[in-house]
Amino acid sequence: ARSRYKIYYIDEVHMLTKEAFNALLKTLEEPPAHVKFIFATTETEKVPATILSRCQRFDFRNIPTRQIAGHLQAICRSEDVPADEDALFRVARSAAGSMRDGLSLLDQLLASGVKVTDEEVRRILGTPSEERTLTIARAIAANDAAGALNEFNAVLESGVGLQTVVTAVGDAFRYMMLIKTCGPDSDLVELPEAQRQAVCELADGFSVPALVHGIGVLAKAAYNAKGSSVGRALAEAAIVRLAAADQFVDPASLIERLEASGGGGAAAAPRPSAGAGGGYQPPAPRAAMNRSPSPPPRSSGGYSPPAAGAAPASPANPSPQGGGSAPRAADERSPRATDASPPSRPQASEGAANRSAPAPAAAEQGAAAKAGVRERSLSTAEKEQIRRDPGVQQALSLFGGEVVDMRRTEAPLTPEGGLVAEQDGEMDEQ
Predict the structure, then answer these.
(1) Contact 266, 288 (CB under 8 A)
(2) What's the confidence (pLDDT) of residue 313?
(3) Rounded distance, CA 46 to CA 22, Å?
(4) Tens digits of per-residue pLDDT, 202-217?
(5) Model confidence at 10, in pLDDT bands (50, 70, 90)?
(6) What pLDDT score does 116 carry?
(7) Could you tell me if residue 372 is left (phi over 0), alpha (psi between -120 and 50 degrees) or otherwise beta?
(8) Among 98-102, 250-254, 291-295, 402-406, where is mean pLDDT lowest?
(9) In this structure, are residues 334 and 360 in contact, taking their beta carbons and an 8 Å threshold?
């Protein structure tokens, strides 16, 4: 009532509705001379542009820990209050960039005693000492799971909360990661000089991947332990996992195994034993497997199956029976007469000559041409769909093969449903 200005402070202004902003907009466009508005928000992007354009914007950022600690120390000197440097640094670090939170904690310390000590700060904050935290980290570095668990239990018995202990150990791993990555003199390492030296010595026992992995494990353990009935078991399991890391599969070795299995695992897969037809034969190309298994065209003399025990005709020189194509042994994987695909291309891997499918015989090519079978190139989407087919993946993994080419055969149909083949400029119905 006695001031020249009336100040209206609206906290979390982004939570106002659209209608409320519209009602406030008229006042902001023509504000009274004696009125000042202050809007505070943590989500500026949710404030309408019409409001932002009529305001002066000030972005508040976190204050560095060392600057907060220096300001707290200046206050203690002006009030003639003795304070330990480590204690003020711990207060500044717990403020997490907020000067207001740091001053509030300092008020509590000044009200409880005549001197600000590190022990009193740890009692009020409920945090473990850096010495005990680093002792757990040293046991982890030495692969001493029992020692790490015993020290972890001692910290819990001193009255420190479970999540607080796990978070403190995670902070120690973070500082070691920063020291290994950015150097011991980095401003990111917000520790007093004595603690910084101790963390630098401990960081030599870890590698950067191990520290990153440890931070992730401890963060997950702290999150899962919150509100869980077995929170302590989860935290202890995380500590044992870090201390016995050599007994678990690390990400680097897992990647090496995957690369090894992808490059040579398929070739090392067991192959089927030799059948009665005489030895192992590779399967037909996938393109031939997708074609309809129509029987070979019959010649004028008809098809006669071979006698029992008769030797199969050679794929390169078929022996025609009655003018037709020669039958093949059951274990051969050569394309049928309807497959007018070109001979299989040689494989790029070792032993390609032994795994390539035999070329179709001349008689079969002529029969395919007579039947009017035509080839159609597949689109990229169709080829990709065939490559992802589970049957294709299983066959490639089992036999160590690779997809060289894909083609699809087509044959036009007559209105009566018969195949139409074009040869020598004439159309024949079959």
Answers:
(1) no
(2) 46
(3) 14
(4) 888 888 988 999 999 9
(5) very high
(6) 84
(7) left
(8) 291-295
(9) yes
**Cα–Cα dist 21/244, whole Å:** 58
Residue 415 corresponds to which tokens in the numbers above? 């209105």
Q: Token pair for residue 159?
A: 């009255």
State residue 419 phi and psi, 5-degree precision.
Answer: -75, 145
Q: What separation in angstroms does the CA of 96 have from each of 91, 190, 193, 284? A: 9, 11, 19, 67
Report the candidate in 106, 71, 78 with the shortest Cα–Cα distance to residue 91. 106
DSSP 265: I
One-letter amino acid identity for 113? G
For residue 249, name the pLDDT band (cuts at 50, 70, 90).
low
Least trusted range by pLDDT, from 67-81, 124-138, 173-187, 387-401: 387-401
Q: Cβ atoms within 10 A of the Cβ of 290, count?
A: 17
Q: What length does the chain have?
A: 430
Residue 421 φ then ψ, to 5°: -120, 135
Say whether 270 sits in a helix, a strand or coil: coil
